[in-house]
From TrEMBL:
GO terms for MF: purine nucleosidase activity; uridine nucleosidase activity
Domain of life (superkingdom): Bacteria
Keyword annotations: Glycosidase, Hydrolase
UniProt-listed Enzyme Commission number(s): 3.2.2.3
Catalytic class of the enzyme: hydrolase
Name this polypeptide is given: Inosine-uridine preferring nucleoside hydrolase
Residues annotated as domain Inosine/uridine-preferring nucleoside hydrolase: 4-303
GO terms for cellular component: cytosol
Classification via CDD domains: nuc_hydro_CaPnhB (cd02650)
InterPro entries for this protein: Inosine/uridine_hydrolase_dom, IUNH, Ribo_hydro-like
An annotated GO BP: purine nucleoside catabolic process
């Protein structure tokens, strides 16, 4: 069985990613590492603890990661992030705080220790900035050859970004960290806006969760309805909300959900295109392609997997 670490800035789609992971029998969620982005890291780990409790999985340990990018000394949540995810990150829905605390071990050390313990059986899924994994690679470069796979949500190769014409939000938080990851030689799969904006959820699906009559189902419905409502303002042409982070988990479980391009990638860190994810021209002719980029997705099959797994989890949670 694959062992999974989720690295989250726990907003709405991060909470849905947790739900997808917990509803997937093929994997074991061995820990959540917190990062910043949709919310401050402290709020993110609070959300991760509370959500795993609500979903009936208090055994999932949560580790606090780095609070800001590798090139700054602080982080402030952007107003657009608060608009999309709510001030508390989970659609301004109130759920009880966990009586658990974050682990004393740092997220970076936990990532390294997990790679040493599980090796090729470990899949690491970052759905926020790449700051924690870049720091882990800086501290223990050898883990790039020992880890099973890194499936990240971030970037955009064949479509525009959602911060500007070329930059996706997660990459924009720490382009330097993302570039170090992309160039590291670690086995990385990029699940970007190319595919995540094809996987849309509507009020029809959230109503199914509401009709389960469970606290978990009601929470998921209320939280996601907030997210869909925000999308009606920020991207009215889509007709729903993008399932960004859950798709990364879906691909970690079943890579055949997407069509992938083998290509060595880089992130621009200088000049006007800072944050752009694009092929690395210096490794264009390198026969060893360490990265894959999703460029197509089986939308009906993924949405069916998504609803089946999360609905089953929400129905069973007390």
């Amino acid at each position: 069985m694959k062992k999974l670490i989720l690295d989250l800035d726990t907003g709405v789609d991060d909470a849905l990613a947790i739900s997808y992971a917990l509803g997937s029998p093929e994997i074991e969620l061995i820990g959540i590492t917190g990062t910043y982005g949709n919310v401050l890291v402290e709020q993110g780990v609070r959300n991760a603890l509370a959500v795993t409790d609500l979903l009936g999985h208090p055994e999932v340990k949560v580790y606090q990661g780095l609070p800001h990018s590798s090139t700054t000394d602080h982080f402030d949540v952007l107003p657009i992030s608060a608009f999309i995810h709510g001030e508390n990150g989970i659609g301004d829905v109130t759920i009880p705080d966990s009586n658990r605390s974050v682990e004393t071990e740092s997220a970076v050390d936990f990532i390294i220790d997990a790679v040493k313990t599980y090796g090729k059986d470990l899949v690491y899924v970052p759905t926020g900035p790449m700051t924690n994994i870049a720091a882990a690679l800086d501290k223990a470069p050898e883990i790039k050859d020992e880890i099973g796979e890194i499936v990240l949500m971030g970037g955009a190769l064949t479509v525009p970004g959602n911060v500007n014409a070329w930059t996706e939000a997660n990459i924009s938080q720490d382009p330097d960290a993302a570039d170090r990851l992309f160039r590291s030689g670690a086995p990385v799969t990029m699940i970007g806006l190319d595919v995540t904006l094809q996987t849309l959820l509507t009020y029809k699906e959230t109503q199914q969760w509401r009709e389960l009559g469970t606290k978990a189902g009601t929470f998921l419905a209320d939280m996601t309805d907030y997210y869909i409502k925000a999308y009606e303002t920020t991207a009215p042409h889509l007709g729903g909300c993008g399932l960004h982070d859950p798709l990364a988990v879906g691909v970690a479980v079943d890579p055949t959900l997407v069509t992938m391009l083998d290509i060595n990638m880089k992130v621009d860190v200088d000049g006007p295109t800072r944050g752009r994810t694009i092929g690395d021209e210096t490794r264009l002719n390198d026969a060893n392609k360490t990265m894959k980029v999703a460029v197509g997705v089986d939308v009906p099959r993924f949405l069916n997997e998504f609803m089946t797994r999360i609905s089953g989890l929400a129905k069973g949670a007390k």
